[in-house]
Amino acid sequence: MEVVIVPDAKAGGEIIAEAMAALLRRKPDALLGVATGSTPLPVYEALAGKVRAGAVDASRARICQLDEYVGLPADHPESYRSTVLRQVVEPLGLTADSFMGPDGTAADVQAACEAYDRALSEAGGVDLQLLGIGTDGHIGFNEPCSSLASRTRIKTLTEQTRVDNARFFDGDIDQVPHHVITQGIGTILEARHLVLLATGEGKADAVAQSVEGPVAAVVPASALQLHPHATVVVDEAAASKLKLADYFRHTYTNKPTWQGL
């Protein structure tokens, strides 16, 4: 994998936003896969800034969702649909018509999962999928020991994940849904370019295992090693456990352009 070490989260957001902007200049109707949480916010803020400045035209861009809570109304402020509309779609000046995601309120959730997989394929596939990583190496809601060939499906949240996410629900874990729809690892690997952003020392072990360890279901993000175009952008803290950190710095730092990204 291509590993880019940046000074801080803001720098990581800027470099990924520029990669997205470059993609949109080449392919104005590109399908961008987005993730939720606090880590990718610098990416969305930087990309929206480029749109406002006229550095890129995102008017034809399409946005797709990585995962969604099951049973949470689509208009609930903490549904991932609402979050993506608020953090990505609206700041880019897009409409809800440019957005696609799984139906977390469907009566037949399995059918909704299969329908979303088909929709991504029929849309021509994801051009760039942005990912975060959990401290246990999960991507999306593909927890350790998820099949590396898995498709979009329903998953049960671990208790720790529900505890972690309670902060978005006024600290009340009882409000956090027990299930989610998530793109499977096999689905994620079909994107043309995978970009994983990780910041903070708490992600250092997961990053090292994913980048330098064996490909193993116990570390779902290690599946990115199988992808022909995967980029991992990490700040110094998240890179602190990488044995090849100096090599990555020498290879990618201080370049005027990031050819691989």
TrEMBL record:
Record's keyword annotation contains Hydrolase: yes
- Could you tell me the keywords of this UniProt record? Allosteric enzyme, Carbohydrate metabolism, Hydrolase
EC no. given is 3.5.99.6
Q: Which GO terms describe its molecular function?
A: glucosamine-6-phosphate deaminase activity; identical protein binding
Feature type site, description Part of the allosteric site:
146, 153, 155-156
The pathway noted for it is: Amino-sugar metabolism; N-acetylneuraminate degradation; D-fructose 6-phosphate from N-acetylneuraminate: step 5/5
A single GO BP? N-acetylglucosamine catabolic process
Q: Which reaction does it catalyse?
A: alpha-D-glucosamine 6-phosphate + H2O = beta-D-fructose 6-phosphate + NH4(+)
Q: Which CDD domains match?
A: GlcN6P_deaminase
Where does the Glucosamine/galactosamine-6-phosphate isomerase domain lie?
11-226
Root EC class: hydrolase
Q: Name one GO cellular component term.
A: cytoplasm
Q: How is its activity regulated?
A: Allosterically activated by N-acetylglucosamine 6-phosphate (GlcNAc6P).
SUPFAM superfamilies listed in its UniProt record: NagB/RpiA/CoA transferase-like
Q: Which family does it belong to?
A: Belongs to the glucosamine/galactosamine-6-phosphate isomerase family. NagB subfamily.
Any idea what job this protein has? Catalyzes the reversible isomerization-deamination of glucosamine 6-phosphate (GlcN6P) to form fructose 6-phosphate (Fru6P) and ammonium ion.
Q: Do you know which HAMAP family this protein is assigned to?
A: GlcN6P_deamin
NCBIfam families in alphabetical order: nagB, PRK00443.1-4
Name the UniProt record assigns to this protein: Glucosamine-6-phosphate deaminase
This protein's gene is called: nagB
